Amino acid sequence: MMRIVLVPCNPALVSICLLLVAACASSPRPHAAGSAAPARPLPVKYGRLQVIGNHVCGCDGKPVQLRGMSTAGLQWFGEAVNHKAFMALARDWRADVVRLALYVGENGYGTHPELKQNVWKGIELAVAQGLYVIVDWHVLTPGNPNHPVYSGAQAFFDEVARKYGKYPNVLYEIMNEPNGELDWATDLKPYAERMVATIRAHDPEGIILIGSGTWSQDVDIATQSPVAGKNLVYTFHFYAGSHGEKLRNKVQAALDSGVAVFASEWGTSEASGTGGPYLSASEEWLGFLDRHDIGWVNWSLCDKDETSAALKSASAARKEGLTALLERDSLLLPQTIGPEGYAVWPAQELSPSGAFVRAHMRERKAPNPGAGQ
Length: 373
Prior knowledge:
The protein is of the alpha/beta class. The chain has a single domain, classed as TIM Barrel (Alpha-Beta Barrel), CATH 3.20.20. About 35% of the residues lie in helices and about 15% in strands. It has 13 helices and 12 strands. The chain has helices spanning about 10-25, 75, 85-95, 115-130, 155-165, 185-200, 215, 220, 245-255, 280-290, 315-320, 325, 350-365, and strands at about 50, 55, 65-70, 95-105, 130-140, 170-175, 210, 230-240, 260-265, 295-300, 335, 345. The strands form 3 sheets. The chain has an 8-stranded parallel beta barrel with strand order 3-4-5-6-7-8-9-10, surrounded by 6 helices. Strands 1-2 form a two-stranded antiparallel sheet. Helix 5 runs parallel beside helix 6 (about 185-200). The longest helix is centred in the middle third of the chain and has 17 residues, at about 185-200. It starts with 10 loop residues before the first helix and ends in a 9-residue tail after the last helix. Mean pLDDT is about 90; it is low at about 1-25, about 25-40 and about 365-373.
């Protein structure tokens, strides 16, 4: 418990000090009526995030670089949303953000609206572990966020912001990867403006992540005519085997225009999720992100049979003779108790990509204070 002792001083200065403490409080604010308050929530490391210039900053105004993992599609790998997995990410991987990939098409939320219950669960688990959490409205197939399958976007973000907008943990990703014949000015910017207005009705401060055309690679085009408002961040996605200097130049152009950017999805593979892993190319990308304090989220926390998956697939386990892994329904619920007394994924359960990403999180970051207690 922190004890604040006030000594006699100028009343005006006392007021200023108290305002600063309140503004930078990293513990969750009182929850909105009708939302479930997570049990024993932990403070987020950087408090409520804000955008200053072209940086995402903590409540103290200093640039921060969030690093974490994305789930795969919740309609396929929803079991990743569990207490042990989130604790392992927060404590063992030393992640500070998790992304909940709510596909809307492809048999996702558009046809199974009950999937939002997994989003609520994921938010509450993240708050309980002191993690930031990105609520990802996963536009992919179809690629136009204005398509009728995405007609529930405003109602969804209205509900997210109303239920959880008072927590400093929550970030909103309003369109994952728009693609196809789309124009920023006529198709994507008006959609983004509607979603920003919807969220701001309940959450005036939370970070909103805005995608762009060509699978969120046209970040330079979007930022030539940015959406009006504060705490808006533009996303870009890359896969080390498919994207390199050309995309980095687009990201640099966006930064030079004065906006903040965030790599809300990247992989060590090709864009298909296969091939590689391209670890040297991934190192080059991570170096670029580090130099510019650009946060990132890796794709993905799953055991799918593809290179970008962080956990071993059944076929990989079979090939390596790891018969014990084959007896488990899924690796998404870690079962091995680590030396600190909580469940972890041991090395033999990680894919080459997962081992690489975990190592980068651990070697470049201090532990999330108090996570998992």
